[in-house]
Design brief:
The protein is α+β, with helices and mostly antiparallel strands. A hairpin with a 2-residue loop joins β8 and β9. α5 crosses α8. It is globular and about 60 Å long.
Length: about 350
């Protein structure tokens, strides 16, 4: 365990300057579980991105109103730089005996690709792991090569683009970005880390780290960018004027919204998907609704949503649609009836969702 912590520090697998917390044993997933995770996760992403562009007859303003997207973000989401909206994403999922259950989509600057690849390599160097691997066939599916190809695929020009990984200089996950910069450089690309506050437009091009930028790999999330809009005007101007491709575009914010599962699983929007797609989504996504005074269908039965939330507390989760990191999430089975009712009533006045709780495998 001590050797692993030391390897994490020397290998830059750190968060806020400390070794990434871990166990000596990594998380193993059986091949039979991995294949549907990959294939069905891919289908969920494709369906979500398509539906986000077609729901409400393609009216992004109406979709933002339904999701409760803050107005400051909706202004930027409404700009359409063209498809794809999502190039990189991270799905949060549980592996269950019945197959994968996806509980969130994270497309607005997903992190962790570099960390995971580096951690896997360091695990493989441990003597205890090497001994294990002699007895049990085990492999790791690295992200770096596919990530580099996905980002670079958005460059419409010839030659090799100069790439900027853009995030706040003080972010605690900076080592993850440094690992990815090494991945781009190992494949012959010039790649820099740039703070959006230090980027500017000059001569019709976005500049960062002392030179023009051809392609932005965005790691600063939209909510933080609009909070500090006065400080990042050059960066946002480049996006508005489409001076270079951004991965991901701000439109990714639509299909990753926690309230978007309420569209993918709500009978009111069933016409946007084929019967086969609806069957897949009902199997791999938790039943989700935007909290509101309305009637809806749960397990084939029409229910009054707010009374249903109060009565079925044990099997439900309440969460804000526009938070991350597990903030303000109420698990019904771990919340008193009084706290639960207060949270449900408050959720009527804000963009919150109620979700069927997915049993966590142990």
């Amino acid at each position: 365990a001590g050797a692993l912590r030391e390897a994490f520090v020397s290998g830059n697998v750190t968060f806020d300057g400390l070794a990434m917390p871990s166990f000596v044993r990594p998380h193993f997933v059986a091949r039979a579980d991995w294949e549907p995770l990959r294939s069905e996760g891919h289908r969920v992403m494709e369906i979500a991105e398509r539906v986000a562009r077609h729901v409400f007859e393609g009216d992004v303003g109406r979709l933002c109103d339904f999701l409760g997207t803050p107005a400051a973000e909706a202004r930027w989401v409404a700009l359409d730089p063209g498809v794809p909206d999502v190039v990189l994403s991270r799905l949060d999922a549980f592996v269950t005996p019945e197959g994968p259950r996806f509980i969130e989509i994270n497309s607005d600057a997903p992190a962790g690709f570099g960390y995971s690849d580096r951690m896997a390599r360091l695990f493989e160097d441990l003597p205890v792991f090497r001994a294990f691997a002699q007895r049990v066939p085990v492999s790791y599916q690295a992200s770096d090569d596919a990530l580099v190809r996905a980002v670079v695929s958005q460059w419409p020009g010839t030659g090799r683009p100069r790439i900027a990984i853009v995030d706040w200089a003080e972010v605690k996950t900076l080592p993850d970005q440094e690992i990815l910069r090494e991945a781009f450089e190992a494949r012959g690309f010039v790649c820099v880390l740039a703070d959006p506050r230090e980027m500017e437009v000059s001569g019709g091009r976005l500049h960062g780290a002392g030179a023009p930028v051809d392609l932005v790999y965005r790691r600063a999330v939209l909510s933080e960018l609009v909070e500090r809009e006065d400080e990042v005007r050059g960066f946002l101007e480049a996006y508005r004027k489409q001076l270079c491709p951004f991965v991901n575009t701000f439109r990714c914010r639509l299909s990753e919204d926690k309230a978007f599962f309420a569209i993918l699983t709500d009978e009111a929007f069933a016409g946007l998907m084929s019967e086969d797609e609806r069957a897949l989504l009902s199997r791999v996504l938790p039943w989700t609704r935007r909290v509101a005074e309305r009637r809806t269908v749960k397990d084939g039965r029409e229910v009054d949503l707010v009374p249903f939330i109060l009565e079925e507390r044990e099997g439900l989760v309440l969460k804000p649609a526009h938070a991350y990191g597990g903030r303000s999430v109420f698990l019904g089975s771990e919340t008193s009836p009084e706290e639960w009712e207060a949270a449900a009533r408050a959720a009527l006045d804000a963009p919150w969702v109620v979700q069927e709780r997915v049993a966590i495998p142990e």
